[in-house]
Amino acid sequence: MTSTIPQGGLEFSPTADGFTLHLGGRLLLQHSAQRPCLSVGQGEADIEMFRGNFSIKDNLHEKLALTACAIRDSDAGLCVTLSRGEVAAATLMIAQDEAGRLRISVNNHSPHHNRIWLNLVAGPEERIYGCGEQFSYFNLRGRPFPLWTSEQGVGRNKKTLVTWQADCQENAGGDYYWTFFPQPTFVSSRRYFCHISNSGYMCFDFSAPDHHALAIWEPQAELCFDTAPSQLALVSKLSAMLGRQPELPEWVYDGIILGIQGGTEVCQQKLDRAREMGVSVAGIWAQDWEGRRITSFGKRLMWNWRWDEELYPGLDQRIPQWKQEGVRFLGYINPYVAIEKELYAEAAAHGYLTRDAEGRDYQVEFGEFYAGVVDLTNPEAYRWYKEVIKRNLINFGLDGWMADFGEYLPTDTFLHNGVSAEIMHNRWPALWAQCNYEALAESGKLGEVLFFMRAGYTGSQKYSLMMWAGDQNVDWSLDDGLASVIPAALSLAMTGHGLHHSDLGGYTTLFGMKRSKELLLRWCDFAAFTPMMRSHEGNRPDDNWQFDSDDETLRHLARMTGIFRRLKPYLQQAVAENSREGIPVMRPLLLHYEDDPQTFDLAYQYLLGRDLLVAPVHQPDCRTWTLYLPRDHWVNLWSGEPDSGGHEVTVDAPLGQPPVFYRRDSAWATLFATLRDA
Amino acid sequence: MTSTIPQGGLEFSPTADGFTLHLGGRLLLQHSAQRPCLSVGQGEADIEMFRGNFSIKDNLHEKLALTACAIRDSDAGLCVTLSRGEVAAATLMIAQDEAGRLRISVNNHSPHHNRIWLNLVAGPEERIYGCGEQFSYFNLRGRPFPLWTSEQGVGRNKKTLVTWQADCQENAGGDYYWTFFPQPTFVSSRRYFCHISNSGYMCFDFSAPDHHALAIWEPQAELCFDTAPSQLALVSKLSAMLGRQPELPEWVYDGIILGIQGGTEVCQQKLDRAREMGVSVAGIWAQDWEGRRITSFGKRLMWNWRWDEELYPGLDQRIPQWKQEGVRFLGYINPYVAIEKELYAEAAAHGYLTRDAEGRDYQVEFGEFYAGVVDLTNPEAYRWYKEVIKRNLINFGLDGWMADFGEYLPTDTFLHNGVSAEIMHNRWPALWAQCNYEALAESGKLGEVLFFMRAGYTGSQKYSLMMWAGDQNVDWSLDDGLASVIPAALSLAMTGHGLHHSDLGGYTTLFGMKRSKELLLRWCDFAAFTPMMRSHEGNRPDDNWQFDSDDETLRHLARMTGIFRRLKPYLQQAVAENSREGIPVMRPLLLHYEDDPQTFDLAYQYLLGRDLLVAPVHQPDCRTWTLYLPRDHWVNLWSGEPDSGGHEVTVDAPLGQPPVFYRRDSAWATLFATLRDA
């Protein structure tokens, strides 16, 4: 029997019939015959997709708790073999890597065992954060979180009428864990992180008081753990491992990026009107630059990824003109090609699309139209699509685009690399991000041109330049309205992605929802305190209040974009810090106040950089707002009143004055003070 | 190795690594190392109840497929030991009983294995019926059916607004399989039945094309199979085994039993008015005979099971008077005692109530009031409650009652017999039926006094004199309205209970639902062609159209009760046949036309006795109706038109003329013909 091996914080101690494993003093894994830490088994996944909405069930054939334990040393580290009679066995290879991280490889011995259940030790008071972009919960304790990239759901709460209506229509209502950006990575309040390199379906269940139950639908798994003396250091270590985002182009901070559709002249007119009313405009984002189609859902795009000269006459001339005026033009792309058009024909001719079981090009139904899936695992196809981005987007003159989708890879399609689509499904968004990233990098445009994504997975930290929160409802709901953007940004921050923004005003306009003026204004107030302001008309623009629906709105926008613009140096510095040290721009309070347990569950307020505390108003008809201030020397941004924190505080919160405090001792205090008169 | 044993139709054949088991030529069980028929494992049930609505999950620790097979003869029959290495094993004891039925006992060898999964062989075209009272499906193929007695749900279809509203309020919406009367018993179109004697939670999954997956949350199980040359013979064999219902009191056929509440004079006035308008009245059913309380749900009863002299002054005199006039008086009881009153005090004093974990009397929340659970496993308590029934109900003069509830036994209560409430939960309704039955039998009142129940389980066939379909919505929904009563009656018929009726007009009046006049009239038309007519005011009487809401309704009722009354000899004979031969009164068409596959899935039409085919109109605003007529010599009851069947037919279906055909060659044809002029 191998004896205790303390090794840079790794402590493995055999016991009578098992072992304990500590890292940096934290008990992570514990095994005994009575309480085995590992089960293995066999299941058959039953995965149905309809328009990005997944129904996932496991047809479980067997599950075996591995009770017996044998330990030996090996060149690759400690080798722990767990078994159950002659019936099943698996090996845990336990080692530390050069950076001092704990690495555990789990390997099933039986080829037909394709399920792993691993229990980590948990404490009753422990909090868990991360798992990608989580819209409903910041602290994930108390619930299971299936990790599968998909639509985020419309409503996302079975007790709302909107969710029920969306469910009835196309199983689209979703639930608290639905997300475009899941990730098998979490941070514990015990100051360790856990990351799994796999990409098959997983479910992390944080319900039990004494353990975290990690279910992995693969025959082997690679886990990685690390600890740090503080949450901030831990998040920094995590992002060092996963990769960090480069800085944003400098022009992003110059004002709002206006979401406009409808053609060159519409853009010109709306731009003129906005500027005339004093709005700071950094760009125009026209997702229909490549044409559009009308479906029952609303206006949709023509997925052929090249300038539509008919809808946007003279755009090639107008882009440089706008640019000279300080206004960038941004477009849209996604990893699918509509079957009616020439990009599809080209991809099909070269065999660049994913296949169906009969070897034909797989066609995905996207709501009254079909598209092929560019096979990003085929190096030729990947290169080709990168060239499409370079030629049709970058060289055409776009200064940015929404790189939409990524979460729809059907599990019954066949890929060039021979890996099951069930395993590639989660990896797809990161692959899609990488494709965009490389197109930029190879064009020498990193730091100048921007793309932003909603879908993500491990790898997106490195390749996705900016996340956006996907498709919120144009409403006040906690799970899918304005509010949901905040835990989304914070959970992503705890997963190593530090750049986040949202559709200003929300997107999904269905089931009688219509964006009110108040919602647009509150969202504007919120967006001014994020690293990027970008509006969206929504899927049914005519039903929604828009930035130019009246003069008051435009004046409001003028004021808030002015504030955003004044924050430019502060934001730039925070974004640089994120790039350099992996400390997110929108931060959970606990990153700086982890000695105060009150901050552990704050899902609806955040720090913007180190020195601003923001608590967006996310309910209608409020003129005051209550938030929590940790102990520090705070100043109310609008009233100038000081507050030393350590308590809840209720502040005046009229439209245009979102609850914001700054640190009295901030190096930026003078700048912040000027905003009071904005 | 034991060789083939053909034994009265039982054929057991060892194979290279397993066996096949046939009964009467039907392949029922098949085992090989590759496709093991049995898995065992361990789970921990997580069962939550709120007002009879259950949320049930299994925390599954392990599941092992038993691949190896060893066969030996024993005194008790064939002994097949299935195992998986040294890790798990179970024994199948296979034998035929004196009646030629196949008996299989499954026994886990390991004491900690408390789950059994058994796969039976299925054919792709096979239909499955039964599993108790199923409201949404008659043919159960294609879905899993959890078997757990509970409320039936309000709406019972996640795509209806009512269901969603009920779910939001108290998880009360239910689903397609929710039922008061589940039973682990089914009949296959391959002409065999399968019955399991256990009572723990089970789930029978009929989704797979090649097998039926039976999950049983107990360490052992007792299965029983039999075959017959026809479905009719099979159902008769099944009811011979399970027990049959005695004949109904003769007075039941004399007219409607009017559901009235509000006191002696209200009953008198409504009775007078009904009779004055020509309604045939067999009885008054006053559920509030023992007093009432008002809650937010509507009018509820005072659960103290004795005449409330204040609300019903002079009732002791009025009952014999009404009886002389041919009108019986029926009351209400259930197995709970309200904590405010003396029955509870008496039960508590004697220790007759079930207990909580601390040994105190368990109190169940029933919606703004609490009640104790009479412990029917305590022989003293059981006897006492029988005496309550005899003294307070029978001796007081009631000629019948609703024996409500039975499905609410909480799983965290503790019982006198020491058996876990998780195991007793399903048995409770049958125990409750037996208590009522014995009270009647011991009073010599069987065949004279009637009780009817909604909850049931194995055993209810013998002890529950009459079932009613529980609480339908006062609406037209397929899953919870008028329509749902028909598959309920038919599935119960295939489970061996042949007497069924429903609340005429439906019951649940919530979420804006209000009973329309048309619904009441259609329900009346339907009820006239069932073995019992009984109206209900609903839980919010003032919101509902009632039998006496206008003269036209009363005239309609007069006509339909007249028709019902004229059917008396025919109904009596059908009920006698049910009692004697176990052939249900409301019969699926396939019982008499099993050569016609078109009849296999008919969920919304039935045979009443042998000679009437009834297809109730269950949608609003219809004046014609389409039904299927199997090949036979049929006569349209209302038009007299003949039809030789073998096709769908669309008939006129005005109010008061529900689609009904009779067999030209019926011995009752003359009687039926007279109804044309009714």
UniProtKB/TrEMBL annotation, chains A, B:
Q: Which UniProt keywords apply?
A: Glycosidase, Hydrolase
Q: Which domain of life is it from?
A: Bacteria
Q: List the protein's name.
A: Alpha-glucosidase
What InterPro entries is this protein classified in? Gal_mutarotase_sf_dom, GH, Glyco_hydro_31_C, Glyco_hydro_31_N_dom, Glyco_hydro_31_TIM, Glyco_hydro_b, Sulfoquinovosidase_GH31, YihQ_TIM-like
UniProt keyword Cell division present: no
Similarity field: Belongs to the glycosyl hydrolase 31 family.
Give the GO molecular function terms.
Answer: carbohydrate binding; hydrolase activity, hydrolyzing O-glycosyl compounds
Annotated Glycosyl hydrolase family 31 C-terminal domain residues: 582-666
Which organism was this protein described from? Answer: Chimaeribacter coloradensis
What NCBIfam families has UniProt attached to this entry? PRK10426.1
Positions of the Glycoside hydrolase family 31 N-terminal domain = 111-151
Looking at the record, the residues that make up the Glycoside hydrolase family 31 TIM barrel domain are 267-571
Its GO biological process annotations read:
carbohydrate metabolic process
